[in-house]
Structure to design on (654 residues):
């Protein structure tokens, strides 16, 4: 892998590398990145990997290359501005709803804010980073009292504390470093949205690349509600002399009325009342921004800067939504009134086009993950990020004999020259694909149990047959079970049933405590079960006897009423592709692979992945999904599986 990355950087060719857990993939891209003559950006999806790189891998690597004068071992971490404490907000106060600076909130919140301020001042004195990840335990609400967004920031030149600013110092360190470690979202803002956030670079390594499309989609998703417009109007009230803020408040009322008249879900066309309300909001916000003073002293007023930023954001979102672009998906999200009521959301229909035109065309990109080959090849992931199958410089993988052409997933139904149903940029983007394998012998270490005898999952959640199967498997494993469920209700139902029938075991459900605490309890006592949803599918690393059984209740297809996924599926169908395979099945394959990957984390691990959805064994698309999983030994015999789990749980039994 290291040689392939070095070749890609030298030849300026994109590279996709599937590298399983335990292969040492981070060192395999860090070494050639250090040896590359120009700055390299490393983008991760999770804080856990970012911490691993900065606290373990990079320090060891720097120590190893010490004394080599021709190697620049410098590195820095760079995050979005809101991830750093703001000294101006800490020392000058926080604007209230009317924009007046207030010192400290009352009550327990005030005590927490004071503690956070003390920590931040200590960071400033000691030349610390001021990063949120290094702060004492806190809530989002507390952090908002000591941080600002990029739009709220006064800017280094106008801020009296600009020379001490944690975010500015982080940018300076990045500008002086060979390697810059950041996240997918900041990369998206810099490269795809074109807002300069990262010092000049020509190479990007995207780790956890299976997440990059969803993270870029998230970064490009905007939301708007009547309550948010009203709040922006209140903030602007004291900074304009005319009726502009009142007009914006009136427009918020019109937006609220239009949203209340709509049912939750995707809007295939913009209703007239909603379109009119968005235009009102857009025009009122534009007038409100224009009415704010533009003199230099006004720009240094923190309350005014925040008010202007809020109104500008309202304008941007309303303008985008009112445009009703074919490249966007618009939907109404139903929120609890206590959280602001109905909300309008907009997201890009696809991101492969902007990624191709603005990232791949400008940079050399290495995509790597333990899960990049879905259905047995790279086509699904390659097309999702803007690479065409015909641009691959070597022949693509040939599907196995059990995988018909119609079930190959993305690329199996179109000519292979379109990414996600479109044309993309005209300049060719050559790329290579490499699977470096795994140090694990999945055929001997893991069993894939296909519960073919169970009834197909229904809309009413887990039935008695599934609950019986779960209880029998957990009993055989004597705990040691990670349950990955399609919904919170299913996880709670299973946990309640296991608690009732197997009271001698400890059964935890997501929501019983913070995820970190649940993970700690799960690791400390092997006779424990942990049942949860999506955050457990990808974010939990529990090697050893703690986890010898992974239960997956159903194939994790996206919900049929998911506005964005259903729109993407329909768009692929309309373009002549297979929307189900290219969107829904690809989504499910990725999550199945990630969930199954929770089981084997070291060469010593043993266990069972039990999929309680018979469609994995019976449906035509089952071949594509199974080809996306590690090559475990598969069986449909429940007795064989229970006996294996019993032997694992009691290794010294006769």
């Amino acid at each position: 892998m290291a040689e392939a990355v070095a070749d890609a950087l030298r030849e300026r060719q994109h590279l996709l590398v599937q590298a399983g857990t335990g292969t040492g993939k981070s060192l395999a891209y860090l070494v050639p990145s250090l040896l590359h003559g120009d700055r390299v950006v490393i983008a991760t999806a999770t804080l856990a990997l970012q911490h691993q790189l900065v606290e373990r891998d990079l320090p060891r690597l720097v120590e190893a290359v010490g004394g080599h004068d021709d190697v620049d071992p410098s590195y820095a971490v760079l995050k979005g501005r809101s991830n750093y404490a703001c000294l101006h907000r800490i020392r000058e106060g926080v604007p209230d709803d009317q924009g007046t600076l207030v010192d400290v909130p009352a009550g327990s919140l005030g005590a927490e804010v004071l503690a956070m301020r003390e920590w931040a001042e200590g960071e400033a004195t000691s030349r610390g980073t001021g990063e949120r990840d290094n702060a004492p335990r806190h809530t989002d609400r507390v952090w908002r009292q000591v941080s600002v967004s990029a739009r709220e920031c006064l800017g280094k030149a106008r801020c009296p504390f600009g020379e001490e600013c944690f975010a500015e110092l982080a940018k300076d360190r990045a500008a002086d470093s060979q390697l810059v470690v950041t996240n997918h979202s900041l990369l998206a803002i810099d490269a795809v949205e074109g807002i300069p956030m990262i010092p000049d670079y020509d190479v990007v390594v995207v780790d956890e690349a299976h997440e990059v499309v969803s993270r870029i989609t998230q970064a490009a998703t905007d939301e708007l509600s009547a309550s948010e417009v009203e709040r922006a109007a209140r903030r602007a009230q004291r900074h304009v002399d005319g009726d502009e803020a009142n007009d914006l408040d009136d427009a918020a009322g019109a937006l609220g009325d239009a949203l209340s008249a709509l049912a939750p879900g995707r809007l295939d066309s913009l209703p007239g009342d909603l379109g009119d309300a968005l235009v009102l909001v857009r025009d009122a916000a534009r007038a409100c921004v224009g009415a704010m003073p533009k003199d230099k002293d006004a720009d240094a007023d923190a309350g005014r800067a925040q008010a202007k930023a809020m109104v500008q954001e309202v304008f941007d979102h309303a303008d985008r939504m009112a445009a009703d672009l074919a490249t966007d998906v618009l939907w109404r999200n139903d929120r609890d009134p206590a959280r602001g009521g109905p909300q309008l959301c907009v997201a890009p229909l696809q991101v492969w086009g902007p990624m191709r035109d603005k990232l791949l065309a400008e940079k050399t990109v290495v995509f790597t993950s333990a899960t990049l080959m879905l259905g047995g090849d790279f086509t699904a992931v390659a097309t999702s990020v803007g690479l065409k199958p015909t641009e691959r410089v070597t022949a693509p993988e040939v599907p196995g004999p059990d995988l018909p052409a119609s079930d190959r997933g993305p690329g199996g139904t179109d000519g292979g020259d379109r990414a996600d149903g479109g044309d993309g940029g005209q300049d060719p983007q050559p790329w290579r694909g490499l699977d470096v394998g795994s140090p694990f012998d999945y055929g001997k270490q893991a069993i894939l149990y296909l519960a073919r005898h169970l009834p197909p999952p229904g809309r009413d959640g887990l039935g008695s047959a599934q609950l019986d199967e779960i209880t029998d498997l957990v009993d055989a494993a004597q705990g040691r079970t990670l349950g990955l469920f399609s919904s919170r209700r299913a996880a709670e139902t299973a946990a309640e049933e296991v608690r009732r029938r197997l009271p001698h075991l400890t059964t935890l459900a997501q929501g019983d405590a913070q995820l970190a605490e649940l993970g700690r309890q799960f690791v400390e006592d092997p006779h424990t079960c942990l049942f949860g949803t999506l955050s457990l599918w990808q974010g939990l690393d529990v090697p050893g006897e703690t986890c010898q059984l992974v239960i997956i209740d159903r194939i994790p297809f996206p919900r049929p009423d998911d506005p964005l996924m259903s729109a993407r599926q329909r768009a692929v169908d309309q373009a002549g592709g297979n929307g189900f395979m290219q969107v829904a099945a690809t989504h499910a394959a990725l999550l199945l692979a990630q969930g199954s990957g929770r089981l084997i984390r070291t060469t010593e691990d043993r266990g069972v992945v039990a999929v309680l959805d018979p469609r994995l064994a019976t449906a035509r698309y089952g071949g594509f999904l199974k080809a996306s999983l590690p090559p475990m030994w598969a069986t449909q015999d429940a007795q064989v599986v229970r006996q294996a789990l019993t032997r694992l749980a009691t290794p010294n039994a006769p």
Q: What stands out?
A: The CA atoms of residues 550 and 609 lie 5 Å apart.
